[in-house]
Structures are given as C-alpha cells and as structure tokens.
Design a protein that fits this description.
Helix content of chain A: under 10%
Structural class of chain A: mainly beta
Number of helices of chain A: 0
Distance between the termini of chain B: 38 Å
Radius of gyration of chain A: 14 Å
Shape of chain A: globular
Order of helices and strands of chain A: EEEEEEEEEEEE
Helix content of chain B: under 10%
Largest sheet of chain B: 7 strands, mixed
Largest sheet of chain A: 6 strands, mixed
Strand content of chain A: over 45%
Radius of gyration of chain B: 13 Å
Largest interface: A-B, 26 and 27 residues
Distance between the termini of chain A: 41 Å
Oligomer: heterodimer
Shape of chain B: globular
Chain lengths: 119, 112
C-alpha cells in the first residue's frame, strides 16, 4: 500500500543553520511522482517541487535542494542557510502512476514537519 | 496564468445546518479538481476528485457530497453538518494525474 512517512514532527533551528526534512515513501508502482509542499501560517499549500520516479537526479533551487534515492525510498529536502520566512509546515506527498487504475493523481500526504526558524 | 479561488474564507455553522463551499479555477480548461480536508494535527485527507463535468469520485464515506456543474467549478456540500466536519477545506486543481496540484487559499469551517 502507498504511504508517506515524515518522522520529524517538529524541528527548530536558528537562522542561517542548514536543515534537512526527511521523507520516506512506500509504493507498489514502478512509476510514481513525489512532491514537496510548504504550508505557511496563512494555510495555503504552496507547491515546491515534483520529481518523477525515473529521474533520480538531485535538484537545487536557490537555498532549497532535494535528494531523491530510490534505493532507500527517500526524498529528502534540505534548506541551506535557513531564514525566518522558511518557518512553515512542510509536506511530502506521493502520487502513484495509473497502473493500478484511476488514481488520477491523487496525492497521499505525509503528516508534515513543522519547521520553526528563530532569529 | 492560472488562479484558484475559494469562498468563503471562514465559516461558523451550527450542527445540522447545510453547507456549500465553492471553488473556481481560472486560466485553464478541463482541469482535474480535488477537495481535501485538513483536521487538527495537520494531515490532509482527500475527500473528492473530479476529472470532468459531472464526474465525481469519492475517497471516503461521509455526509459530504461534491458536484462539478461547470468545467472549472467545484462545489462541496452537506445537508446536515456534524461536529466532526470542522476543519480546513482545500480545493486544488491539476492538469492530470502526473502533474502537481495547485491549492486554493482554503476555507476554515467551524461547526458549533
């Protein structure tokens, strides 16, 4: 069965520290998609990144980087030189391919990691 | 560019009253549409999704229903609210199953 685990419930860091948010997933499908979303205190979920299962290349976008490792079923997210504006709840999500019928891209979310960055 | 609207932003309703939440998307055609609920504790639960007008799939049994009367309009309804319906309701759209979903600002519902 599909599942996303974010073992870190809350993380607190001081500004300028690096922080890594862990995400481990389970899926029976060979084609799947992984996502990270940010939910600031306002509540709206903001899309950060999508990764296809057949593309294990890591990605960097400014202070954000993502490490996808199929061998360990992990898709970790690192924020370098964290800032107060990074404070939010971060969700990892999984969408399986359509091999098992009609999922239509439904996202399975982890329970989220609340990141607090203190000045 | 595409935008997604939800209203109302907040709602306080008594138990047993009806509910209607509306979501509209601009700037795209034939999107997949989704309703999620986020209860206390932060987990997001998919309630309904739709791949076209009049096509609704339900993920969990409950006293809620959804309708898609127009291509870019998605409505979440209830005839009689329960206390357990309280939560943060999020609407989302995507171009299809392989694509990311974009979320609206959400409706915070409190059932008293």
């Amino acid at each position: 069965a599909q599942k996303v685990t974010q073992a870190q419930t809350e993380i607190s860091v001081v500004e300028k520290e690096d922080v890594t948010l862990d995400c481990v997933y389970e899926t029976r499908d060979t084609t799947y998609y992984l996502f990270w979303y940010k939910q600031p205190p306002s509540g709206e979920l903001v899309f950060l990144i999508r990764r296809n299962s057949f593309d294990e290349q890591n990605e960097i976008s400014g202070r954000y980087s993502w490490n996808f490792q199929k061998s360990t079923s992990s898709f970790n997210f690192t924020i370098t030189a964290s800032q107060v504006v990074d404070s939010a709840v971060y969700f990892c999500a999984l969408s399986e391919g359509l091999n098992y019928g009609g999922s239509q891209g439904n996202l399975i979310f982890g329970k989220g990691t609340k990141l607090s960055v203190k000045p | 560019s595409q935008t997604i609207h939800q209203w109302p932003a907040t709602l306080v309703q008594p138990v047993g009253s009806p509910l209607s939440l509306e979501c509209t998307v601009e700037g795209t055609s034939n999107p997949n549409l989704y309703w999620y609920r986020q209860a206390a504790g932060r987990g997001l639960q998919l309630l309904f999704y739709s791949v076209g007008i009049g096509q609704i799939s339900s993920e969990v049994p409950q006293n809620l229903s959804a309708s898609r009367p127009q291509d870019r309009q998605f409505i979440l309804s209830s005839k009689k609210l329960l206390l357990s319906d309280s939560g943060f309701y999020l609407c989302a759209w995507s171009l299809g199953g392989a694509f990311e979903q974009y979320f609206g600002p959400g409706t915070r519902l409190t059932v008293t």
